[in-house]
Design goal:
The complex is a heterodimer of chains A (162) and B (157).
Chain A: H1 3-12, H2 22-30, H3 34-47, E1 50-57, E2 66-74, H4 79-87, E3 92-97, E4 109-115, H5 118-132, E5 136-150
Antiparallel strand pairs in A: 2-4, 2-5, 3-4
Helix pairs in contact in A: 2-3
Chain B: H1 13-21, H2 32-40, H3 44-56, E1 60-67, E2 75-81, H4 88-97, E3 101-107, E4 113-119, H5 122-136, E5 141-143, E6 147-151
Antiparallel strand pairs in B: 2-4, 2-5, 3-4
Helix pairs in contact in B: 2-3
Classes of the chains: A alpha+beta (162), B alpha+beta (157).
């Protein structure tokens, strides 16, 4: 990531311009050539800096009203192998190992599921429980009941391009 | 506004196909809308208009590249607080006002406020969490990821 990449990120983190030549519009804004903008976008896609380019739907608007963060207390020596297996389940969108905060929070494996009903989310959780088996001591599902803020990533303030 | 209460808008068949086809893979070329539109049997101007309308209606929350903060040398950290119901609105507002906070959700649990701090450095994320702790007098529990097993959210419309 050099300063030009950072400027590109800053220019399109709120979204791509909705004009016929969006990469040309960004290039004009940054004083770059469109070829350079497109080459850098491709390179960032290849390196995984950009996960993907496209539309980001609002879960609720598509009827995904049961957005559950399923959390699991999994034996430390097994959590990495089992986390990978849970991450492979097609209905799991994000899967991470995170720290516990005992005694308040005993869970170290987090897996997000998105469903249209809580019954469907619970069926997904049951399949995760099957994968974890006896290594899981306890679990919970935290449903989001309100989206209070959701912005695109804004990690770049206003990088100067000199 | 409680977004979970908002009615599900009926989507046209073309909007559904657009959402299902382009949660990734939007082209990088001179006329990407034209290329994408062809795949959907639309013309360029109609596709741009559809995306504009879906953004305005809130069906789409964004259109563009999705960045991976980790690969940019950035940091994002999940955190949670246990907020008394009477103070919920004020504290949710306090969290939302911090520019480093990217997402904030109310969840059903003793830890009822879950948010993500994202910034160029862990110091900046920490300073946002510290400001929230100082202003609220409540602990912010940090849940940095120790290992990522999978990330890819594709929703079928």
């Amino acid at each position: 990531m050099d300063s030009v990449d950072l400027a590109l990120v800053a220019a399109c983190q709120a979204g791509l311009p909705l004009t016929p030549r969006p990469y040309h519009a960004i290039a004009a804004q940054l004083g770059l050539t469109a070829e350079e903008v497109m080459a850098r976008m491709q390179a960032m896609l290849q390196r995984g800096v950009i996960r993907r380019i496209g539309v980001v739907p609002n879960h609720y608007a598509l009827g995904y009203v049961a957005n559950g963060m399923t959390v699991w207390d999994v034996a430390d020596e097994q959590v990495d192998a089992l986390g990978k297996a849970v991450g492979r389940l097609g209905f799991v969108s994000h899967c991470y190992r995170r720290p516990r905060h005992l005694p308040l929070w005993p869970y170290n494996l987090f897996a997000m599921v998105h469903a249209k009903t809580r019954g469907e989310a619970e069926a997904y959780a049951a399949r995760i429980a099957d994968v974890l088996g006896a290594a899981c001591r306890q679990s919970d599902i935290l449903y989001s009941t309100r989206m209070l803020k959701k912005t695109g990533l804004r990690i770049v303030d206003q990088p100067p391009l000199s | 506004m409680n977004r979970t209460d908002s009615p599900v808008l009926p989507l046209s068949e073309i909007d559904r196909r657009l959402i299902n086809a382009f949660q990734g893979g939007f082209p990088v070329c001179e006329r990407p809308f034209q290329v994408a539109a062809e795949a959907l049997g639309l013309d360029e101007a109609s596709l741009i208009a559809r995306i504009e309308a879906l953004l305005a209606a809130g069906v789409l929350s964004r259109f563009g590249p999705l960045f991976n903060a980790d690969r940019m040398g950035g940091v994002n950290v999940l955190a949670a607080m246990s907020v008394p119901a009477a103070d919920f609105e004020a504290l949710a507002g306090l969290v939302n006002r911090q520019p480093e906070i990217a997402h904030n959700y109310r969840r059903e649990h003793a830890l009822n406020l879950w948010f993500v701090g994202a910034a160029e450095t862990s110091e900046k994320v920490e300073s946002a969490f510290a400001r929230i702790e100082a202003a609220s007098g409540l602990p912010v529990y940090r849940f940095p990821k120790e290992r990522e097993f999978f990330v890819e959210l594709i929703l079928e419309a």
